[in-house]
Amino acid sequence: MKILLVEDDAALLWFLAKELEAxxxxxxxTDTGDGGLYFYKxxxxxxxxxxxxxxxxxxxxxxxxxxxxxxxEINPLQRMAMMTAEPKKARGKLPNALRxxxxxxxxxxxxxxLRVAGARPAxxxxxxxxxxxxxxxxxxxxxxxxxxxxxxxxxxxxxT
Length: 160
Description:
This protein is an alpha/beta fold and about 160 residues long. The chain has a single domain, classed as Rossmann fold (3-Layer(aba) Sandwich), CATH 3.40.50. The protein is about 30% helix and about 20% strand. It has helices at about 10-20, 35-45, 65-75, 85-95, 110-115, and strands at about 1-5, 25-30, 50, 80-85, 105, 130, 140-145, 150-155. The longest helix has 13 residues, at about 10-20. Mean pLDDT is about 80; it is low at about 120-160.
């Protein structure tokens, strides 16, 4: 499955790409909407496109709504979703044709992303003993182990 990720938070982009690649997905990643549109035109269509609502504005694409709208105009059948800490704001700016577009609220569970992406059921099984929550670089990633213990890690990956 080929996935396009557009996110300007380098830590989150790296984390998502690493986790998806570990599950066998081919991931193209960029931190700008212009880059996302470029990759889509060059390498698309993708099985799934995930874009942040807010990223570094480019000359053509200023936010995630503009990106998913531009991709929808190229390919109305493209499976996509947006991620944001403010889903109501993002959803309110979507054109009518994209009102049903999935919007993941940050932080979200990796399993939620896989479900929205339409991953095969086997791909929904995280490494048998852990659930990973996606977080931004300024917050911490929580790794909840099956044994019930919780390790909090700061953005450098050190346990706190």
